[in-house]
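Budget justification, computational time. The allocation requested in the original proposal was used primarily to generate C-alpha cells for proteins on the priority list. As evidence of use, we reproduce two of the resulting records. The first is shown immediately below.
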Amino acid sequence: MGPRGPPLGGSTRKAYGEAGLPRATSADLPVFTHAPKRRFKRPSRAIGFLLYQAVYAPLVLVRSIYRQLIVLTAMFVTGAWIFSYYDGLAPLAAVLASVSTITTIGLYVPNHGDFATLNHTEAALLIVLIIVSVGAAASLLQGTVSSVVNGDLARGAAERSLIKRLKGHVIVVGYAHLGRYVSDKLGELGLDCVVVTRDPAIYESLAKKKALVVLEQENRPIVTLKEAGIDAAATLITAHEKDQDNMLIILGARRLRPDVRILSVVHDEQLVDTAKNAGADVVIPSAVSVGHLLALSATTRDLVGIVFSERVGTREIAQFTVFKTSKLIGQRLQELTKLAHVIGIVRKDELIRDIFDPALRIQQEDTLLVFGDPAQLYELERAAGAV
C-alpha cells in the first residue's frame, strides 16, 4: 500500500460525514434491478443492419424519387400522344419518339426536321415537354446520387426497423458529456441502448458505426421518444446539459409510459424535487456526485466506489490488503461487522463467493472489499496493518 491521506476523524469527519456535503436525493444508485437482457447478439445486429439496408435501399430510393418518376412518366405519355396526334405515328412508334426526344437521343425529328412548317401547337407542346422533362430528369439524377452515395434513407429505415425489434432496452437522451459515458458503459454490459442526440454530426458519426441513434427533434419530445422505442423500453436516462431539456423529456416519457423507469441528472441541485415531481424515479445532482467522489478520493488511495442513498447516506467502497503483521489474520468476517461490511475477498487473484461460510477466516495477503462509513473504514484498514 502506498502512503495515504489523513485519517477521517475529528473535523475531517465532520466535513465529509453526516453534517458535511449534501447527499444526493436518489432512492438508490441507478442500478438496473431488472436489467434488460440482450435480445439478440451485437454481431447479428450488424448483419441485420446490413440486411435491412439491402432490403430498404430500393424501396427508399423509389420513395425519394417517386415524384420525379411520375412527372417523367407523364411526360413520356404526353409526348407519345403529341406524336401520335400530330404526326400520325403508331402507339409504339409514338412512345419511342417521345422517349427519344425527352432523353435528347434524337432518333425521331418531328416534321422531318422542317421546323418552319411544324404545327405551332405541336411546337409549343414539345417546348413545354422538353423543359419539364429536363428539370425532372435533373432532380431525379440528384436524388438518386444522394441516396446511393450517402445511404441516409436506407440507413434511417434500417435503424427504425431495428429499434422496433428491441424490448427492454435503455434510452439515453443526450450525448454531449455524461450520456456518452453512460451509453459506452451500457455497451460494455451488453445492454441494448438507443442514443438520442440533437447534434447532426454526432448522429452521423454514431450511425456510421451502426449504433442505434435517433436525431432529436427540438421541442418535440413525444415524437423523439416514440422513434427511440419508448413503448418497449425498460429504462430512460436523461443526460442533457440543460435541466429544462431533461424536464421536457421526463414529462413526455411519463405521459407515454407511466411504468417506465426514469433516471435523470440535474445540474442545479434545487431542481431535484422538480425533476421528481415531473416523474423521474431517480434524480442525481451531477455536482453532488462529483463533489463526493473528489472529496473522498482526496482522503484515501483505496477508494473504489461511492454509494449515494437517502436510506443509508453516503458510503464508501474501498479495498485494502491484509499484511502479515495484521491482527485480522485468522478472524471470521462476522467479527468485522462492527466496523464495516465485507462484500468480497480476493484471494490468490480469485474472488471468494461464499463469504458467509462460518469456516472462512481472513488470511495474509487477502484483499478485502468493504462497504461502510469512511471513518470506520479507516479504522478497519489500520487493523489490517495497511497504515
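The second record produced under the same allocation is shown here.
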Amino acid sequence: MVSRRDFFKNAGVLAVGAGLVSRVGAASLPEAATMDGPATKAPPPPPNGRPYRPVITLNGWSLPWRMNNGVKEFHLVAEPVVREIAPGMKANLWGYNGQSPGPTIEVVEGDRVRIFVTNRLPEATSVHWHGQRLPSGMDGVTGLTQPAIPPGKTFVYEFVAQRAGTFMYHPHADEMTQMAMGMMGFWVTHPRNQADHSVDRDYVMLLSSYDIDPGTYTPRVNTMTEFNIWAVNTRTFPGIAPIVAATGDRVRMRIGNLTMTNHPMHLHGFSMEVTGTDGGWVPKSARWPETVVDIGVGQMRNVEFIADVAGDWAFHCHKSHHTMGPMGHAVPTMIGVKQDDIVKKINKLVPEYMAMGDKGMGDMGSMQMPIPDNTLPMMDGQGPFGNIEMGGMVMVVKVRDGLPRNDYRDPGWYQHPKGTVAYEWTGEVPAAPKAPAVDSGKPGLELKVRKPQGHNH
C-alpha cells in the first residue's frame, strides 16, 4: 500500500526537477493555477477576450488564462495528485493542476491559444487535443508529431480554435498507464455567435474507470477490462455534485468517455436529444428524443433537455455494475442459500461475520459492514427515504421552481407535494382482471387449450 505521504515523497524529485525551467523562462509563463478540493467551482464571467457563458464542471473548475498580445495563454502542469473519489476514499493519481480530471479549458471560436505544459511526472508525457483541428505538429502524439516532454521540462502548444464544440485532452505517451492514472481533461470552444446553441445551464463531465484494490490508494495500470470503480469526473455517487436547474431551463450535459467500454446514459423524467459530438453540432433536423444515449469509447456527446418538471431525478449509466462500488467478480451468487447454521459456527471464530446475498444484495448499503480503510462501500448512497442502493456512475438532476439563474448550490432533497409520493396500500387488494377471450377471427369457432395427455401439471 502506498499512502498519500509516501506517494508525494516518491514524487519529490519531480518537484525539484521542475525547477530546471530557468527563472527567465518561468517569469514568462502564465501562473499555474491549482485546485485540490472536490467541490464544484462555478466560474466567473470571462475577464477579457470574446464573451461567452461559462460551463460548469461537476466537482471541478475552469482554468484561468492571461491575454498576451491577443493570445490566450494557459499553463497546464502534469503532476501526481490526490483525488477524493468519494468521502472516505482518496486515490493517488496523476492529473493536471492539482486534480484529476484536469481543469476545463474554455475558449471562443477563432481564439489563438497558447498552452504551456510543464511535466512534473516521473516519466515523459505529451498532450493530445482530442477532436481539435490544428497543425500536425501540435497534435501531441509522442514520437510521431513531437518529441516527448521529459520530466522537469515545459513545452508549448499553439493553435487557433477553429470550430466551436466539445473536446477533450489527454496524453499520447505511455497512454495506457497515464490515462489509467487519471490524466484527462475537458476543452470547450464556445461559438463566436453566442446566440447559436444557447442554453440556460451547461455542464461538463468525463467518464473514467479505475482498478483500485480495497484498502489501497493507487490504481492498477495494466487492467484492461475488470475495473471496479466507475466514475464521473473521478467522483462516484454519492460524492458526485448534483446537476442543478430551475424549472423550465434548457440544460446541456457535455459527456466524454475515456473508459474502455461504452456507457448507455439514462435520464429519468425527461427526454433528451443529442445536439453535438466532438465532430461538430448535430443539425436540428437530424435530432430525435431519447431517454438513453450510448456513448462509445473515446466519444463525446452533448445532450440537451428541458427541465420542465420539478423534482430529484436520477441520471446514470444503465450498465448495472457501473452503478455500484467495488466488488469482487469471483463472489458467488448466494440467493436462496440457507446460511443460518454456518453463520452460527463461523460466529464462534469470527464474531462480526454476517451472511450476505441470500436474499439479494440490496441490504449491502444498510449493513454497515467493516471494510478496509480507504475503500468505497458497494452501495452507499443515502436519500430522504433510505438507502438508494447505487454508487459509481450515478448523478442526481435537481430541478427546482424559482431557482436563480446563476445558482448552482445543492438545494437539498426535493420536498414532494402531498399525494405525489408512491405509498403502501393497506386496503383490500382487488382481484386480478380476467384474461380477455381469444378471437379466432372465424365465426362459430372457439379456441380451446388442452393439457397434454400423460403429464401432471
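A brief technical remark on that second record: Confidence is low (pLDDT under 50) at residues 11-24.
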